[in-house]
């Protein structure tokens, strides 16, 4: 049986979601060439806190992996884990504020244009 063509596949697959917790500690450690203990330490210090499986094993999303990569870079620049956590929190806050500004601008444009007619 042939696989479904792209247009016939169900949308919303976990692989499409950057926040879907799909990767184990071992997989992430191999992907990023870091020690598993380092990943556990990031979790212990609330720098990157992956989801947990039913068996309480850490499961990382693509978004978590990007945060680990960012943490590695910041640590290599001399930041402490507390500093890395603060930088990542501030980056998340900036992204949220940028989205809020974009939404407000869109709403203001819609209000300015008014209803047709």
Structural notes for this entry:
Helix content is 56%, strand content 3%. It is mostly helical and 117 residues long. The protein has a single domain, classed as Multidrug-efflux Transporter Regulator, Chain: A, Domain 2. It has a two-stranded antiparallel ribbon with strand order 1-2. α3 (62-76) crosses α4.
Largest sheet: 2 strands, antiparallel
What overall form do the CA principal axes indicate?
extended
Q: Structural class of the secondary structure composition?
A: mainly alpha
Mean pLDDT across every amino acid position? 89
The CATH architecture would be: Orthogonal Bundle
Helix content: 55-70%
Helix/strand order, N-terminal first: HHEEHH
Rg on CA atoms, Å: 20 Å
Strand order of the largest sheet: 1-2
The count of DSSP E runs of length 2 or more, i.e. the number of strands, is: 2
Number of helices: 4
How many structural domains can be distinguished in the coordinates?
Answer: 1
Q: What is the straight-line distance between the termini?
A: 54 Å
Structure in a nutshell:
56% of the residues lie in helices and 3% in strands.
Key descriptive features of the protein:
mainly alpha, Multidrug-efflux Transporter Regulator, Chain: A, Domain 2, 4 helices
Task: Set out the fold topology.
Layout: H1 25-32, H2 36-44, E1 51-52, E2 58-59, H3 62-76, H4 81-113
Antiparallel strand pairs: 1-2
Helix pairs in contact: 3-4
């Amino acid at each position: 049986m042939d696989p479904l063509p792209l247009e016939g596949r169900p949308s919303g697959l976990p692989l499409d979601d950057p926040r879907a917790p799909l990767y184990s500690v071992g997989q992430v450690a191999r992907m990023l060439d870091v020690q598993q203990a380092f990943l556990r330490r990031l979790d212990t210090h609330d720098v990157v806190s992956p989801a947990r499986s039913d068996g309480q094993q850490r499961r990382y999303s693509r978004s978590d992996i990007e945060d680990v990569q960012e943490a590695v870079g910041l640590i290599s620049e001399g930041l402490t884990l507390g500093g890395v956590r603060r930088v990542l929190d501030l980056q998340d806050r900036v992204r949220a504020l940028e989205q809020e500004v974009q939404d407000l601008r869109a709403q203001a444009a819609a209000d300015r244009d008014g209803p047709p007619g």
